[in-house]
Hints:
With 358 residues, this protein is an alpha/beta fold. It is built from 16 helices and twelve strands.
Amino acid sequence: MTPRERVLTTLRREIPDKVPKLLPGEILGYTPGIRALFHEKIGDIDPAEYFRFDVRSIHLNPTKKEVDFHKYISELPKGAFIDEWGVGHIPGSMYHYTKMIHPMREFKKVQEVESYPFPDITEDYRYQGLKEKVSKLKEKGWAVAGFAENAGMIFETSWYLRGYENLICDFINNPDLATVVLDKVTEIVSVASKKLVEAGIDILILGDDVATQRGLMMSLPMWRRWLKPRLSRVINSARAINPEIYIFYHSDGNCTDIIPELIEIGVDILNPVQPEVMDLEKIKKEYGNKLTFWGGIGTQTTMVFSTPKGIKEEVKKIIEILGKNGGLVLAPTHVLQPDVPWQNILAFFEGVEMYGDY
């Protein structure tokens, strides 16, 4: 099988020749420490080429829109930056650990949201050339995933703008404000999703971290009211373009409580199925005929603290559990942190070669 045939067979929950694999950095980006490690070990070779990932990804073109967000964020310390949504980021100890400054944190009225300079993610130039990139990747035999960075998230992008505590309180105390923030973000995510699907991708990457390691961040009724219908809207808008598109949904933590309803609204792929906090045997038994599982190898445990031998054993175990009768794309559960040893990365791929054949 070609990698694309292997992945599409897996996503149909049929049995491929072997388990597809990749590192999450192909979609989410690599931490600077891991990027430096790759440069040291493999030079300038793309890790996806070096390790023969079965999935390749495309991303939006960068924005050309210039906005002065200092009306919303007055001062930034050295090294900080403002992204295209207007969210301020103060760097922390390592990649993606930043303190955020929320530009809508002081908003009181719906009109303030309506007049806010949202990014131009829906403009056609952000997608120029993507169809050609997808075609070339498919011609080379790869499955193609499309990811629109923060335009693939509804809840997270909304609280990045408003502030987490503020948005959760808005759900109860200021529902009109919460509604307009979420609806505006949902509209942008819907348009971005449609345009990515029009480019010909096989897999649409969506997601929101809605769970902690102990369970949902909010009550199930609150999720149903505020997030489920909006996620459904995005999925429906994508399927209106291509009914066969595969919908990938990401949430860190233990999101078991919403799995049946994710399936109900059209999610095909669940990521990252954290082994530290989820009962993998149970979710495979209950949902394996309706979901493909993508991930499974613990980033916060196995990849960091195990030995190469232990990682190969874990790869074998996860394939036996989540890969039984197909339905598994094997990967670490998140981007690799700088303390992951090179030998452990090699062991992951060696483990797939050893135990990944059906």
